[in-house]
Predict the structure of 3 beta-hydroxysteroid dehydrogenase type 7.
Amino acid sequence: MPVEHSGHQGGPCGKRVGEEGWRLGWSVPGMARREEQAEGDNHLSLAGNERRPALVASLGTLGLWLQQDMADSAQAQKLVYLVTGGCGFLGEHVVRMLLQQEPRLRELRIFDLHLGPWLEELKTGPVQVTAIQGDVTQAHEVAAAVAGAHVVIHTAGLVDVFGKASPETIHEVNVQGTKNVIEACVQTGTQFLVYTSSMEVVGPNIKGHPFYRGNEDTPYEAVHRHPYPSSKARAEQLVLEANGRKVRGGLPLVTCALRPTGIYGEGHQIMRDIYYQGLRLGGRLFRAIPASVEHGRVYVGNVAWMHVLVARELQQRPALMGGQVYFCYDKSPYKSYEDFNMEFLGPCGLRLVGTRPLLPYWLLMLLAALNALLQWLLRPLLLYAPLLNPYTLAMANTTFTVSTNKAQRHFGYEPLFSWEESRTRTIRWMQAMDSSAQ
Ligand SMILES: NC(=O)c1ccc[n+]([C@@H]2O[C@H](COP(=O)([O-])OP(=O)(O)OC[C@H]3O[C@@H](n4cnc5c(N)ncnc54)[C@H](O)[C@@H]3O)[C@@H](O)[C@H]2O)c1
Ligand SMILES: CC(C)CCC[C@@H](C)[C@H]1CC[C@H]2[C@@H]3[C@H](O)C=C4C[C@@H](O)CC[C@]4(C)[C@H]3CC[C@]12C
């Protein structure tokens, strides 16, 4: 059903919880926080001595060992990472994950068109956090941010399947922006580049062919007309082709691309929009897509973790991983787009009406086409950008799921968050978001 991105009402979610926003509670399950690790480093001599009694034979040995420890940790904390788009939905999770899970970080640069106020809280930690307000379409701004970085994680992009931006702008940000990042790496001598691609570089294609639990090698006719997937596909191609180019200093550039399916989790704007739409409809959503159509989803924390891991391992296994693509996956269940959303919206008091679509598909297509026409007609006056348009309908109505273990085989990836945890975190975020809005 057409859903507009606007408006805001309180809802049943918020009545249940009165907790802090998700940003304040961000942590990783079963793992020491980076700050704790840093604190642990300060006490290494004691903890280490318990484990290695031979080393405490004399005070002199202890002193030597301490010095060695300090040298090791100075050596270890030497890397400079740059995250483009670091203030976006995914980018913020990547930034926070790096701070928690990358002990070799010395400096983390966050480059974004719009910097978030939450960055301030990160500046008090042991890693130097440098916020850079900049535009990936401006080559000189990108080059200045990249200079001296060891690794670039390029997540910045214009994610627009609703017709908010022009095809030219989407191309400019996603393709030219990526070219600028690649050239900046080459010119300044940065050797490792991770690109956030998308499942959409593969499909669903314009013919609506299903991709049922496929992997990176599954044959599929990837044909696009929409500006967003076309731009992502071109940018991914550029990144992969750049693998092996000599960067300043003569070393080879090592690149790879991660292809998330539909990401969900804390900060997911579309989930928020659908939630408020449901509230406006009296706590109901009306089924539009058959439950049998599977749509791939992956939790944002696991996508962020994959970025951290791939960036780390790319430095260890450039021959294996350079020029490769990896789907992002975890244990999220295979469901239709709407049924999956109900995993979070249900506990927030929303109901999905109907076991089958309430409207025939041809009527939905007609509505989608009408929306597209209205968008075009109204463009000189206002931006009409509902969720339902011919492209989003095709996306939601075409089976596209992945089943692969390539990331596990190549760089030891295992999801950091179980499905239960991903679900709980997402629900808590929705509840907190709603209570803070009231
Ligand atoms: N959200 C998903 O479901 C999904 C799925 C697959 C892939 N992706 C990809 O993941 C990446 C991040 O997506 P997201 O969902 O977090 O989107 P987002 O819009 O929340 O984040 C994108 C970030 O890029 C920044 N940005 C946009 N234009 C820029 C420019 N010209 N210069 C500098 N920064 C700019 C934005 O300010 C924003 O902070 C994108 O590349 C997207 O294509 C997203
Ligand atoms: C037809 C209506 C009932 C529902 C409309 C849902 C629609 C807005 C959803 C369905 C699928 C969603 C996309 C999908 O999860 C994957 C991606 C890839 C990513 O690169 C960007 C986001 C995107 C396009 C999702 C956008 C919202 C979509 C189209």
Remarks:
- Residues 1-12, 14-22, 30-72 have pLDDT under 50 and may be disordered.
